[in-house]
Amino acid sequence: MSWMVHYLWMIPAVPLAASLVILSLSNARRKGAAALAVIGQVLALAMSVLAFAATLQVPGFRAVRNFTWFTFGEQTLRLGSVLDPLAAAMLVMITLVGLCIFVFSAGYMAEDKNFTRFFAYLSFFSGAMLGLVIANSLLLLFIFWELVGLASYLLIGFWIEKPSAAAAAKKAFVTTRIGDMGFFLGMLWLYGRSGTLLFYDGGNGCLENAALAMLGTSATFIALLIFCGAAGKSGQFPLHVWLPDAMEGPTPVSALIHAATMVAAGVFLVARVYPLFLLGAINGVSSSLTVVVWIGVTTALMAALIAIAQEDIKRILAYSTISQLGLMMVSLGVGGVAAGIMHLLAHGFFKALLFLGAGSVIHGCHGEQDIRKMGGLRGLMPVTFVTYAIGMMALSGVPLFFSGGWTKEEILHATAHWPRSHAPYYLMLAGVVLTALYMTRQIIYVFFGSSRAAAERAHESPRVMTIPLIVLALCAIFLSVVLTPAWPWLHAYLTGESVRFEIARLLQPMLFISLAVVGAGIGVGIWTYRKAGIPDRDRPAEIDPLEYAQPGLFRFLANKMWIDEFYDGTVIAFSWIGARFSDWMDRYFWDGLVRGFGAIGQLFGTFTASVDERGINAGVDETTAGTRGLGRVISEAHSGQIQTYLGAIAIGMLALLLLYAWLA
Amino acid sequence: MIPTLQVFLIVSAALFSIGLLAALSRRHAIFILIGIEMMLAAANLNFIAFWRFNPQPKQPIGVMIALFAIAIAAAEAAVGLALVIAVYRHYRTTNVDQLDQLKG
Lengths: 664, 104
Prior knowledge:
The complex is a heterodimer.
Chain A: H1 3-6, H2 10-24, H3 30-54, E1 63-72, E2 75-83, H4 85-108, H5 115-134, H6 138-156, H7 163-194, H8 209-213, H9 218-233, H10 242-245, H11 251-260, H12 264-272, H13 274-278, H14 287-308, H15 313-333, H16 337-364, H17 377-380, H18 382-396, H19 403-416, H20 423-447, H21 463-478, H22 489-495, H23 509-529, H24 545-549, H25 551-558, H26 563-635, H27 642-663
Antiparallel strand pairs in A: 1-2
Helix pairs in contact in A: 2-3, 2-5, 3-4, 3-5, 4-5, 4-11, 4-16, 4-21, 5-6, 6-7, 7-9, 9-12, 9-14, 11-16, 12-15, 12-16, 14-15, 14-20, 14-25, 15-16, 15-19, 15-20, 16-18, 16-19, 16-21, 16-22, 18-20, 18-21, 19-20, 20-23
Chain B: H1 5-25, H2 29-52, H3 61-91
């Protein structure tokens, strides 16, 4: 059904159009705004499911539709959309998770006075993200990439009265911009070398053999530059610093953007341009992929360590997201592309579930976000507790019923078979232990024990908020059906292979290792934090057990390993110096030049004025004074006395006579 | 002995000069008029002198001119006196030094 690909552009267009319409509504029409956004999302979901169904016909389905945007000279710039298993799976995940979050937001943001604007921005984000996954051109992908970044900025800084939110939004945008610079450079290089930015173009696309042959060794650098963009967007070390601060935005935003979808765009990008990474690979190992692996490993471990020492419920989940994204990058790097994408899809569901659960907890505790001030919510918020526990087990990697377990299993399997080194496998096992540890810590603090402070007055959230939680929890569980090694349907769908049902594959030794590791993590967590929040021997109630045991290490982790401060001292200080220098130049040098020219003009004016004043005016004045003086002198001849006049006549007559006599 | 022409001319010139002097240096208005009359008399004498010593003295040209001049002098003296009276009625003085309204 390749007719579907011709209408693929409608999938992002509907939420974008809904966003425009909502923006034109006034602030009072809340129900209309929410309804429009939800309807747009439902339509997008319906179309995504249709598109997904279309890709089931044939293994390795791919349909593209390219069009010309404009021509310059003899070259044309073409864009297009592509429909293949990767895009279709992402479409369904984004629209489904988005729909749940939209419905949740209608309840969560009900008392906010900018309700309409929120849904406009959410819809805009949804449209942009959907456009990103179906783009067939690196340029079109970049355009939607930036739009998604814009939506993130608008939504993180949604509460404009909060200066911390505005600062966080700015930090997010600038940090991802640094990555985007690399992305853009890679894009330009690719275009220069291969002449096209379309991914698939009937054999001529930049990911197809004809163009790849033209790249040679530059493919490594192009891939690494594009990875810069992915690292920025997906919060890889060292560009991860914006993600925890992005928690300043409302919780549905954190769920949608910073857990399920936008941060997944980086991983999606790496998967999309994977042929570039693979070029020149021996046995599935190439230099660019190695870089991806090590950055992913660093990110995953670093974030997991920091998460153990955080006390804000959303920060723990933010660092968890960073850690999981690192894990996905590792998976992509060692060659497990399908495994990484499956984890991405599953992660989208259960991380959104966890964030929405956290939102429900925050709502129930009337705005409290410090886990040390919560507790015992198990009985007070049962639905939230059960769904949160499901999400936690999916994230920790408990296999069997929870999708996260199977996908993590696949990833560990892929890392264990990496030819280059076995270190990532062991490090990721450590990561799994840490994940289970911090999630157990969080659940114990928040839901178990006795209620502290704000949690005493907690109440369960309304149905509009709990039903999306239930839906997402069910998705998290049922996704595992298509993920089990016994029937790896999703894996086969993504890679284009055929699939068989084999129960024997369920009993692999690696599965038992993972079970043991996860169990160990949860066990250590329960044992360490069983008395969290209550006084124990010399430890007061509000000190974390780990903090009591290892205060130095805890402080190091709680302060995010001082990375933000390091950046403040180096990069930001450097740009401050540059900014101040530029300001000085502008204020004194250039401004001085301009004022100098102005002074010259002024000097000329002054000179002319003085010439006019003292030269010309004075001359005229003197002349007139002289004339008047002369006149005064002459008028003394008019004495008014007759005899004077008579005398003058007589003398004149005499003169005439003499003249007459002389002449004659 | 008949005086030559030059004597008459000298007398006439002297009379004219005295009249001019009187007109220019006396303060009283009537004295200026007297001076003017003297100048007129001097001019008349000049006319008669030149007529008398002219080769053809039959037509009384000089006498006629002198007669006209005397008549005109009389008229002019009347006007002058009327002026002086009018000035006196207005300014209460005949001292021409004080009649400097046209000064400047």
